[in-house]
Amino acid sequence: MRWWQLFDEEEVERDFSRLSAAGFDSVRVFLLWEDFQPAPEHVSEQALNRLVCVADTARDNNLSLIPTLFTGHMSGVNW
């Protein structure tokens, strides 16, 4: 669940390349609200840059990207 905090660009490139080679056409990634907005008035530029990297890597491997945002009390902060 801490994929965005432990982000490894080379791992993403390797995995997306393998998925594409295996015939997959899409990838679903999960966005935890707290990774992208760690405080009520702060958006993480690092997390956004990592998301752009993931989107670019998906595009480069002919994969559609399905980002899924998790919010709320069960998987995120309650402000």
What does the model show?
The structure is a single chain. The protein is built from three helices and two strands; from the N terminus they run H-E-H-H-E. The chain has a domain at 26-79. The protein has 79 residues and is α+β, with helices and mostly antiparallel strands. Helix 1 (9-21) runs parallel beside helix 3 (45-60). It is elongated, with a radius of gyration of 14 Å. This is Glycoside hydrolase family 5 domain-containing protein. It comes from marine sediment metagenome.
Spell out the key features of this protein.
single chain; 79 residues; alpha+beta; two-stranded parallel ribbon; 2 strands; GH; Glycoside hydrolase family 5 domain-containing protein
Number of helices: 3
Largest sheet: 2 strands, parallel
Low-confidence stretches: none
Order of helices and strands: HEHHE
Structural class by helix and strand composition: alpha+beta
Helical content stands at 40-55%
Q: Can you tell me the overall shape?
A: elongated
Q: What distance separates the N and C termini?
A: 21 Å
What radius of gyration results from the CA coordinates? 14 Å
The order of strands across the largest sheet is 1-2
- Mean pLDDT figure: 92
Assess the beta-strand content as a share of residues: 15-25%
- Beta strands, count: 2
